[in-house]
Amino acid sequence: MSLWYALCDLLPVEMLHWDFMKNAFLALLLMAPLFGLLSTMVVTGKMSFFSDALGHSAFTGIAIGAIFGLAAPTWAAVGFSVAFALLFCYVKSRSNQAAETLIGVFSSSAVALGIFVATLGGGSFTKYNTYLIGDILSVTPEEIGLLVLVLAGVLVFWILCANRLTLTAIHPQLASSRGIPVGLSQTLFLVAIAVVVTLCISSITASPCCSPCWRASAAWWRPTIPSAPPARPSACFWPWYSPSPSACASGGCDMEATIQAIARIHSDFPTKFGIPRQSGLVEELRAVIVFEPEFRSPDALRGIEDFSHLWLIWQFSQAVRQGWSPTVRPPRLGGNTRMGVFATRSPFRPNNLGLSSVRLLGVESTREYGTVLHVGGADLMDGTPIFDIKPYIPYGDCHPEASGGFTDTAGDFLLEVDFPEALLARLPEEKRQAAMGVLSHDPRPSYQRSPERVYGLPFAGFDIRFTVEGSRLTVRDVAPLGE
Hints:
Layout: H1 2-10, H2 19-44, H3 48-67, H4 73-93, H5 99-118, H6 129-132, H7 141-170, H8 172-177, H9 182-200, H10 212-218, E1 237-241, H11 245-249, E2 256-260, E3 263-266, E4 286-291, E5 309-315, E6 327-328, E7 339-340, E8 353-366, E9 370-376, E10 385-391, H12 394-397, E11 416-418, H13 421-424, H14 429-440, E12 455-459, E13 462-469, E14 472-480
Parallel strand pairs: 11-14
Antiparallel strand pairs: 1-2, 3-4, 3-10, 4-9, 5-8, 5-10, 6-7, 8-9, 12-13, 13-14
Helix pairs in contact: 2-7, 3-4, 3-5, 3-9, 4-5, 4-9, 7-9
């Protein structure tokens, strides 16, 4: 791997400065020919749906491996998928049914068996998502080594059997008359597919899927309160886990429930880029919290004006994806060191929840949106859904003696900001100090440190262009967004 890392360092691509991106890039280069070789034979053999059925069987295998306490349930999935392929070959050779019919039966049976096995003893089968839904950005050198072996095996198999398999798929009788063992060739092919599909599950990222409710809501997110938001669903629900009395009574608290967004925040950040890494770092930032129609009762906010700060519980709505990884690479550590997800504030969490402490600047009653809250120091993107608001209580929430783990040694280093007066004057006066604060906290990703690169910060309806050399940030241009 050291040779590969050295080659990547020679490429003029900034994202390849991180080891995990180098691993992901190499995994892609290995999987592209691997899938290309197999897919030609899969299509020729009319077995496209079989790969999908194997993915379902992997779920059952992983559940069986987890129940028996295997340290690596993926190997149990490989074994079950191979057995699944062999059984399919046996039934197919002795049945007059079409292959598609048998694949549908086997696929449904595998899913049903998997759900049964996974939920033995109570609980939700979603706990196996770590193994079933991969992330190519988390590929390890050991997994890359395994991909190399699999690719080598497939290459040898393709060289020796490609012509035989093609003839077998097109005309089995002719293949048999030429002495080709049709049944054995098909069986070996299906076993190869089973091994490749199952082993690659942990390396392929599933595309995040947004519900129609979130997509509809995105249409009215604005940097300021919209004048007339279009009609949309009145409630957006987000899957979460919450214990029920009956579940806890039986020893398991893994029941699925729903949690509803009560409000949305409207800030000066239309994208994730530039948002301060923690709340309260830039006190000059201003945002407005607008409640959903069903939560606009003034009584729900009675007494809140007596508190100076609030806790916001919200969703990392731009980081929602299926599955989760137990370890992440904090940008503050350079992106090369893995930490436990629960020891960081990474947005890629099992439930994608965020927690922020903000200053309450005012409570305003409006005709169109009911009572809204004006807050300062928020580290949230415009339109972020908020699930709950709680008052900050100093005697219980403040711990001056607390230690900050790795953040104590990886502090937030401020940049010196050179913002020419002529360019600063293009921003509204009430946004200038906030913009200066955001820039001083270095909005660049940790892996991007090129002094020649010109960065663009979308902020308060403007595009702020800047460069960074050493500890000095220089603003190069300020223009309205879209120009």
